[in-house]
Amino acid sequence: MDQDHTHQVIEEVGRRLDRGSSTSLYWQTSELLEKRIAACDLRPGDRIPSQRQLSKLWGISEVTVRRAMQELAARGLIRSKAGSGTLVIGRDAPPESSPALTTQTIRSVGIVFAGLSDGYPFIRPMIEGIERRCNGEVALQLFDMTTLLAADPGAARSVSFAQVDALLLESPVSLPLVIKCQEQGVPYVLQFSDLADGHSRCVVSNYTTGVIQAVGHLVNERDRRDIALVTANHQRFSTGKLLDAFGVAAMVYGLNTNEQWITSEGYEESDGYNATKRLLAMPHAPNAILFASDYQARGGLIAAQEMGVDVPGDLSVIGTGNLLREREWPVPLSTIDLAFDEIGFTSMDLLYAMVNLEADVPMRRSVSSRFIPGKTS
């Protein structure tokens, strides 16, 4: 068949995709192409454009195109052959002539934040883990949902991620965006969020191990039981996990709990500074503070110094994240290492498994934390 006619048919398939439908785009694409093959608009021997060309032509991700092509190959309608590209073969071709399409890798990943100004202190080590898993061969693109949805909070349904092969969705997650990914057939992994919807793959931090170790250190090594907790924003999935872990540690070690010693802040240094000022000004002040981030802890150390409180003599300080390098704070900070690089590595591992359509890809992966003692506790 004339290649111009084939191109016209392919273009028509793209125009018929319903991006507002609940049916995934990859399934719509495979169904539309199958109908055109059945109607002989596409005949055996016709060459299908490359997946990259189809992605640009239709305005959908290459992963979505790939899944549609794999579905058609499984139905025995097309085949991919080195040097010939992807060809239509029709239903009557012998089984041996229709091997599965060659697996392709991920070239670009989008990282979606609720708002970059909201503070994501883990981004640097997480990206290091991503690059370690993919040998630096994947381009990363950042998306700020606050900016994307500023004009219309419901705009997540119209956001297109055709320029990336897969997504990492940070906490707090946008449910309309999750639905959009499912509709478009874009592989995604939720990081630091646990959504049991039967579709979403999740990678979360296990706070409990590290928090129990940190509290055990304070109780057994420093005889500190009046321990305050400074969490991140209540909207964070991690905040709930940290509160749960701290509650378990309080029961294990019989802490002197005080609701006024548990406060919700942001992740930044100024948040830790302000929280510490309030906590140390209380009539019955805590003698140890556990912070949700190392940057908060750095602010807490500055506040304690200004108030004439000796660390660790009068006050023990423990951060979270293992984020500070030597140049960022002169004293080794006691911290709970959440292994952010391992979270990035594990998330990419899941994305590769999903793109390659591997069997039994786990729905949830948990990365353990550990306490690293420094000179502030």
Please provide the count of β strands: 15
Order of helices and strands: HHEHHEEEHEHEHEEHEHEHEHEEHEE
**Fraction of helical residues:** 25-40%
Task: Please work out how many helical segments DSSP would assign.
Answer: 12
* Strand adjacency order, main sheet: 5-4-6-7-8-14
Largest sheet: 6 strands, parallel
Q: What does this protein look like?
A:
There is one protein chain. Helix content is 39%, strand content 17%. The protein is α/β, with parallel strands linked by helices and 377 residues long. It has a six-stranded parallel β-sheet. Strands 10-9-11-12-13-15 form a six-stranded mixed β-sheet, with helices on both faces.
Write the layout of secondary structure elements.
Elements: H1 3-15, H2 25-38, E1 47-48, H3 51-58, H4 62-74, E2 78-81, E3 85-88, E4 108-113, H5 123-134, E5 139-144, H6 145-148, E6 166-169, H7 175-184, E7 188-191, E8 201-206, H8 207-222, E9 227-231, H9 237-253, E10 262-264, H10 269-280, E11 288-291, H11 294-306, E12 316-320, E13 334-337, H12 340-355, E14 364-368, E15 370-372
Parallel strand pairs: 4-5, 4-6, 6-7, 7-8, 8-14, 9-10, 9-11, 11-12, 12-13
Antiparallel strand pairs: 1-3, 2-3, 13-15
Helix pairs in contact: 1-2, 2-4, 3-4, 5-12, 8-9, 10-11
